[in-house]
């Protein structure tokens, strides 16, 4: 008799998958992938580590498109993408909790910094990858210049807020948020420490313009 999978194993909810699909359709649509510019790189150019979301690997069309956009917009010496172990090699497994991905992510960042010593480091992510990027940026032994969040899972499946790490970060963070099918950008400066009410005020202003 076939054994049923353990009930404790975490699976993506339909809402999580739908959220990622909507982000892929909305953020970055209509981009000309062939319009790439040749620019001179220097030691001042940042290196970007770009993490994928929960449901698709770094080879997805959405990730490839945004990798090129980030490289051009930031004049990056390289945009490094990777696959978390649970989805590497074409695997289709449910993602673990974000906290369990931090060590692997840190290892990728460490290898990237070793390859590009002296270059500013920018962490970027899509949805779940944004959350893990923020966790890594909060580590004391990693010097991060900024974080770019292309979508952020601010609420968990049970409705609980996941804003603790955001309130603790001391680096600039840009949120790309979808509201009424319009992309809004919010930049949180590094020199300001926000309370919960102030953070929510920033989000509201970003959505309403």
TrEMBL record:
Residues 1-40 are annotated as: Disordered. Keywords: Membrane, Transmembrane, Transmembrane helix. The chain crosses the membrane at residues 171-192. This is KANL3/Tex30 alpha/beta hydrolase-like domain-containing protein. Residues 46-176 form the KANL3/Tex30 alpha/beta hydrolase-like domain. Gene3D superfamilies: alpha/beta hydrolase. Signal peptide: none annotated. It comes from Sesamum calycinum.
């Amino acid at each position: 008799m076939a054994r049923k999978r353990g009930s404790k194993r975490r699976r993506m909810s339909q809402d999580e998958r739908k959220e990622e699909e909507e982000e892929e359709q909305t953020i970055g649509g209509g981009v000309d992938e062939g319009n790439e510019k040749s620019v001179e790189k220097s030691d001042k150019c940042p290196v970007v580590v770009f993490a994928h979301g929960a449901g698709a690997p770094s080879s997805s069309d959405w990730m490839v498109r945004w990798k090129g956009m980030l490289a051009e917009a930031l004049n990056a010496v390289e945009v490094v993408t990777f696959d978390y172990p649970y989805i590497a090699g074409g695997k289709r497994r449910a993602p673990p909790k974000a906290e369990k991905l931090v060590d692997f992510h840190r290892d990728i960042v460490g290898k990237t910094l070793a390859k590009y010593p002296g270059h500013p480091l920018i962490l970027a992510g899509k949805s779940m990858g944004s959350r893990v990027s923020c966790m890594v940026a909060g580590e004391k032994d990693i010097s991060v210049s900024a974080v770019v969040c292309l979508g952020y899972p601010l609420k968990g499946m049970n409705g609980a807020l996941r804003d603790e790490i955001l309130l603790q970060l001391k680096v600039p963070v840009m949120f790309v948020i979808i509201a009424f099918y319009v992309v809004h950008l919010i930049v949180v400066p590094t020199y300001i420490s926000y309370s919960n009410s102030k953070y929510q005020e920033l989000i509201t202003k970003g959505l309403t313009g």
